[in-house]
Amino acid sequence: MRPQILVLGSGWMPQVSEELDRHFACHYLARVPQEERPGFIEHIAPAVRAVFTSGTVGIDAALAARLPALEIVAVHGVGVDAVDFAALAPRGILVSNTPDVLTDDVADLAVALVLAAARRLPMLDRYVRTGGWEAKRPLAPNRALRGKVAGILGLGRIGQAVAARLEGFGMQIRYHQRSTAQLAYPRSASLLDLARDSDYLVVCAPGGPGTRHLVDAAVIDALGPEGTLVNIARGSLVDEAALVEALQQGSLGAAALDVFEDEPRVPPALMAMDNVVLAPHVGSFTLEARTAMGMLAIANLLAHFAGEPLPTPVPGKPA
Ligand code: 8YV
């Protein structure tokens, strides 16, 4: 008999669902009307041995408690901040994620955001479309990237891929993270120092309670009126209210954001600003990355049910 799995969230490619259906008896929560979901979960709960979930949906303690036969949570994403490890670990429930296969594409988006902010591409697009060019509406020059400093908050796999790309644009790289492991670039002793030293602060660190609002009013202030904040990690890392205020007051130069504190809600104030570039959490949203992520998440489930080690387990509880 095929193992029963509960599928939460969305965002994977259709062929991933096909592959899931080939191997497992799948219960797709997103296909059940909202008001029927509690009853649906109660009905299937005793038989559910695995959860397949997105990085942003994860699994909370309340749902985990309702699944007595749960053995493994396979996250379709690298971030596991939405997984309640405290609820899973005591029950020996395994967790896997999908690192590496999305690194290049997420890093590409980070660079796209840096470039879009530096060259003000969305604003220039609007300028052309609304007749600004023909009407010769005044236009200030952009600022070059060459020679500017990119400060990377979190020089892990994705941070390093971002750094390598930005070096190619002639930028100088600095970084800050909690670990003091020797890495290829100069490390700023604190995030405040990094913000002070950087023209672009690129947030690549993991989300979760340990990193909530790391980028606060003081850090944003240190980045300054010529500085740009880029976030491709998690909205929770940035104090969004402080960010909006700094942009409104001109104490921060610009922002380019793929992630937000309360997705998919974006503060209307950000939408109104020309020096803000917005994207709907699409760092890994390429056909290639999303297919590979789905297949890797499934490979973890298959390994588990075959009694083999997981290809990409998440060890213990991340900080
Ligand atoms: C996706 C992500 O939003 O990998 C992550 O942590 O945030 C993204 O790739 C999501 O997990 C897709 O299901």
Give an overview of the whole structure:
By secondary structure, this protein is an alpha/beta fold. The chain has two domains: 4-99 and 287-305, Rossmann fold (3-Layer(aba) Sandwich); 103-278, NAD(P)-binding Rossmann-like Domain (Rossmann fold, 3-Layer(aba) Sandwich), CATH 3.40.50. It contains twelve helices and eleven strands. The chain has helices at 14-23, 37-44, 61-65, 85-88, 103-118, 121-129, 157-167, 191-197, 217-223, 240-249, 268-271, 287-305, and strands at residues 4-7, 25-28, 48-54, 72-76, 94-96, 149-153, 172-176, 200-203, 228-231, 254-257, 276-278. Strands 7-6-8-9-10-11 form a six-stranded parallel beta sheet, with helices on both faces. Strands 2-1-3-4-5 form a five-stranded parallel beta sheet, with helices on one face. Strand 4, helix 4 (85-88) and strand 5 (94-96) form a beta-alpha-beta unit.
- How are helices and strands ordered from N to C? EHEHEHEHEHHEHEHEHEHEHEH
Report the portion of residues in β strands. 15-25%
Rg from alpha-carbon coordinates: 21 Å
Count of discrete domains: 2
Q: Could you report the average pLDDT, rounded to the nearest whole number?
A: 97
- The low-confidence runs, each spanning 5 or more residues with pLDDT under 50, are none
